Structure formats: structure tokens, C-alpha cells
Here is the input.
Amino acid sequence: MPENISLGQANHNPLNIRYAPANKWLGLDEKRPNVKGFCRFRADAYGYRAAVKLICTYMTKYDIRTPEGICQRWAPPSENHTLLYTMAVCGRAHLRPDERLTPRSEAVARLVAAMARQESGMHITPQGVEEIRRRFGV
Here is the structure.
């Protein structure tokens, strides 16, 4: 892996989703699905799709509906400075930490784009995330 590329970029996994064999993600690399404990996808779009699906699952299954709650689960204090992570993501996404989100809200696209930047340095616009959502129906 070149020095100037993040693991998330190399794995087409913009939000650094951890690998779990039980998760049969669409677009997961068949030959090498797990790199250093993280999913490896065939293309960035599949990594963004998985991130949207996970965040929407947080909302629908666990009733975690604020950027602050999502960031606390995604980047727990045991591994991150969660408050700084949340503030950076919310600043980029133009969201309040306590703002209530819904799975179909355009704010999800802003959140995913900001989290990708924070996690792996990958740049995508919220419009790009929305296009991936339309393409995959998520």
C-alpha cells in the first residue's frame, strides 16, 4: 500500500467498517474480504453503500438517531477521541450533534460524506452519497 493512501482508501472502505464474517456485504472482495480487520470492497460505491446501511440500521434497530449517538457508536471512546470526532464530523456536515435524523433524510448523506473524510480522508459530496443511495436503493 503506498504511503500516501489510507487503509480505507486501499480497501474501498471509506468509513473503515470492521470485517465480520456474518456480514455478507454486497461488493465485498471475494478473494480478500478482510484486511487488518476491516472490510475490503471491490469499489468505493460498495463501501459507501455499506456505511449508509449501517447508519440506517443504527436508527431503525437501535433508535440511535443523532449524529452524536451515531459517532459514539461508530468511533467509541475506547478507540477514539469521540467528542473531537463528533465535533469534526458535525462541523463538516453542518449538523448539530443533537439533531434528530431519519433514515431517508438528506442529512444522512452529509453525515456519511463527513465521516468518510474523518475516517479515511476520502472526499465525496453529499450529492455523490445520494447518487449511491439511489443506485443501490438504500
